[in-house]
């Protein structure tokens, strides 16, 4: 029921014919260049219409020191879309701030995207959807993705204090960002309210890549007069030193049924790693299911795992080992943005925050469902698609392979070798072939990052039906041999240390 209502709302917003009350308010700040400092401020406030679009675009700007701020607030309409995009900006020091606050409508969609921005030193991204109200349906989406800082980076996505009279969907994602040094990623969904139509709260921090990393997702103190689903996903993050991953679902209330699910999976911490999930003081008037999954995470030295708290209400539990966790965070198929963005900020992309992708929603205990590769592909974080022709399937790369950040993409493709379902199995295998064939000198520096996914998948022994019918273990063995033959005099020692079962290819020559 919820998904149908959302579809009707979106259709009304997207295709409503022009009326005397229609209004479009747009501000564009694009393609500007400054050798020194650059400050760009844009605001759309206090407008009223029956059918209203408010949009701010700050993209493709460059400067030494850069500050981009955008604000949409105090607007009123029956049908309302509020959208801010800050994308592909370039600076030595960079601050991107966006807020949609205090708007009101009957049906309302609020969307912020901060993507593909590049800072030569430090970067700060803040995106907030705050205190907006809709009498009927409301969709709030914040996405901070594919940004790159050469030193430190901080990304905070917040959806808080919003209210919908009937049904509400709240999403806060921080995905596929890179920092050469320290990175702080935070997603917050708090104190939002919805009526009898229900509420969907989804927070994700996935596929980020710094040296030191702190990832935190919080879903707290949200209320609905109907059913409620709260989902946290912290997956596929990689760093070479210390990593802290935490998820908190606390103080949420549903008059109907409530599903709470938290997942920390497929993350890699170098020296140390801390993974924490907490469920506290959640209440349901009907049934309540709580599921927690911490799996497939790796750390070279120290690892601490904590799962605490059982929700108060009917039926709260921690899922036993072999059980399937309850469905969480999905009244409809998960949001996917079509992207052509690489770690290099120059490639443009047109994303639609409410585009749907045919996701299977499998149990996280299923090995194929839990791979970081699958999750990131389903979220649209890879610049690839399948090209079908008479000679067989191929990967259509939306960017030049030679321009890709191999430190980011190659390990992710290797993590997909455990996949047995299509198109994931084909994309992971063929993607590795393409990257290795055209990587040249970019491959060898990435070898240490590849050892972990190779070790996990080595000897998997699972056969899958492809035209070449390759075995995963054989493919990995051949890749290790290639690394040994081309990686220099210390290659074998490094491989043997991480994969003790490996035997030198030179001993068999």
Characterization of this structure:
InterPro entries: Parkin_co-regulated_protein. GO terms for molecular function: Hsp70 protein binding; Hsp90 protein binding. The chain has seven helices and 31 strands. It is of the alpha/beta class and about 500 residues long. It folds into two domains: about 300 residues; about 140 residues. The chain has a 15-stranded parallel beta sheet that branches. Strands 2, 4, 6, 8, 10, 11, 14, 15, 18, 21, 25 and 29 form a twelve-stranded parallel beta sheet that branches. The chain is globular.
Q: Fraction of residues in helices?
A: 10-25%
Number of helices, counting only DSSP H or I runs of 4 residues or more: 7
Oligomer: single chain
Q: Estimate nothing, just give the exact number of structural domains.
A: 2
Question: Which stretches are poorly predicted, pLDDT < 50 over at least 5 residues?
Answer: 1-20, 310-369, 459-469
pLDDT averaged residue by residue: 77
Q: Could you give the count of β-strands?
A: 31
Distance between the termini: 64 Å
Q: How large, in whole angstroms, is the Cα Rg? A: 23 Å
Strand content: 35-45%
Question: What structural category characterises the helix and strand content?
Answer: alpha/beta
Q: Sheet bearing the most strands, described?
A: 15 strands, parallel
Q: What coarse outline follows from CA principal-axis ratios?
A: globular
């Amino acid at each position: 029921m919820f998904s149908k209502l959302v579809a009707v709302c979106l259709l009304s917003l997207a295709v409503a014919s022009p009326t005397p009350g229609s209004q479009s308010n747009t501000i564009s700040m694009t393609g500007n260049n400054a050798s020194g400092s650059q400050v760009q401020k844009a605001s759309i406030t206090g407008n009223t219409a029956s059918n209203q679009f408010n949009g701010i675009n700050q993209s493709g700007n460059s400067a030494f020191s850069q500050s981009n701020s955008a604000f949409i607030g105090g607007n009123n309409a029956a049908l309302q879309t509020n959208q801010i995009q800050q994308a592909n900006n370039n600076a030595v020091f960079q601050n991107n701030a966006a807020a949609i606050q205090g708007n009101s409508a009957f049906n309302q969609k609020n969307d912020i995207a901060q993507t593909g921005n590049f800072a030569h030193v430090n970067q700060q991204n803040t995106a907030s959807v705050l205190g907006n109200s809709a009498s009927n349906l409301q969709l709030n989406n914040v996405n901070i993705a594919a940004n790159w800082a050469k030193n430190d980076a901080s990304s905070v996505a917040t959806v808080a204090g919003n209210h919908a009279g009937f049904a509400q969907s709240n999403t806060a994602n921080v995905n596929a960002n890179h920092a050469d040094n320290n990175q702080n990623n935070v997603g917050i969904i708090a104190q939002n309210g919805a009526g009898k139509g229900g509420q969907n709260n989804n927070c994700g921090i996935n596929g980020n890549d710094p040296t030191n990393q702190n990832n935190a997702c919080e879903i707290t103190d949200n209320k609905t007069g109907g059913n409620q689903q709260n989902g946290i996903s912290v997956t596929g993050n990689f760093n070479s030193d210390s990593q802290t991953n935490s998820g908190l679902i606390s103080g949420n209330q549903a008059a109907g049924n409530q599903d709470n699910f938290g997942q920390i999976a497929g993350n890699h911490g170098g020296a140390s790693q801390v993974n924490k999930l907490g469920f506290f003081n959640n209440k349901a008037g009907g049934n309540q299911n709580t599921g927690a999954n911490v799996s497939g995470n790796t750390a070279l030295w120290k690892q601490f795992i904590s799962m605490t708290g059982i929700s108060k209400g009917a039926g709260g539990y921690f899922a036993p080992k072999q059980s399937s966790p309850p469905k969480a965070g999905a009244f409809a198929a998960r949001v996917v943005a079509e992207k052509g963005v690489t770690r290099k900020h120059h490639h443009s992309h047109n994303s639609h925050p409410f585009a749907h992708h045919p996701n299977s929603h499998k149990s996280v205990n299923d090995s194929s469902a839990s791979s970081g590769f699958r999750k990131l592909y389903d979220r649209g974080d890879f610049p690839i698609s399948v090209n079908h022709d008479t000679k067989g399937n191929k990967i259509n790369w939306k960017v030049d392979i030679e321009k890709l950040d191999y430190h980011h993409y190659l390990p992710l493709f290797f993590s997909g070798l455990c996949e047995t379902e299509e198109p994931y199995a084909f994309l992971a295998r063929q993607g590795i072939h393409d990257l290795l064939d055209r990587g040249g000198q970019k491959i060898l520096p990435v070898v240490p990052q590849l050892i972990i996914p190779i070790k996990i998948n080595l000897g998997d022994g699972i056969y899958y039906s492809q035209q070449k019918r390759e075995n995963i273990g054989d493919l990995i063995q051949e890749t290790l041999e290639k690394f040994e033959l081309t990686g220099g005099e210390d290659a074998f020692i490094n491989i043997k240390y991480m994969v003790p079962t490996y035997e030198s290819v030179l001993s068999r020559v």
